[in-house]
Amino acid sequence: MQKVWIIDVLRHGETTLSHTLRGHLDDALTQTGWQQMQTTIEQMQPSAWQVVFTSPLQRCAAFAQRFAAQTNLNCNMDANFKEMYFGDWEGISTGQIYQQSPELLTNFWQQPTQYTAPNGESLLDFQSRIQQGLFLVIEKMQIQQHEHALLVTHGGVIKLLRCLAQHQPLDDLLKMQASLGQLYRFKITMDDQQQLQISEE
């Protein structure tokens, strides 16, 4: 019988720079953002989670660390789960970018596999980083005999996981839903070649 791991992925809530492309900027949650995450968590059965993983950026880590402490769970930070790095577009709203570089932004939005933010991270590098993070998560869960984890991370990470789970082209990434403070459940299995297979529940 194939081993199945369940990873519930929580997107951080609203932040002080929510109207911009934050990428690797380390902006804090607003009170609303904190409440969005809290409300979502309260609707779940926290007792099901055996371990917590998080992006090290404070909009994820602050909540993850507090939640882990409250529930006596280990909290593991992993930089692989940071948001995509937007280079020169970090901290700028899409409206401003569109005024300055309408063609580049449109191309990036429609074909992110072909176009990258100036000096930013390519989508393929981002995918590779997330898959590496996921592999390390499963490795740790195997060692500790855990089957159900909470991962606190970013919209881009969730959109990528949803693309992979639904076998959608990566160019559809930005059309995927990943709402602030919401939770998405993924089932992970491993094939005979030790490749991770992702599906959405």
TrEMBL record:
What phylogenetic lineage does the species belong to?
Bacteria, Pseudomonadati, Pseudomonadota, Gammaproteobacteria, Moraxellales
Organism encoding this protein: Acinetobacter ursingii ANC 3649
Supply the alphabetized keyword list. Answer: Hydrolase
Give the top-rank taxon of the lineage listed in the UniProt record for this protein. Answer: Bacteria
What is this protein identified as?
Alpha-ribazole phosphatase
Tell me if Phosphoprotein is a UniProt keyword of this record. Answer: no
Record GO terms (molecular function): fructose-2,6-bisphosphate 2-phosphatase activity
Sorted alphabetically, the Gene Ontology cellular component annotations on this record are: cytosol
Give one GO biological process term.
regulation of pentose-phosphate shunt
Which InterPro entries does the record cross-reference, listed alphabetically?
His_Pase_superF_clade-1, His_PPase_superfam, Phosphoglycerate_Mutase
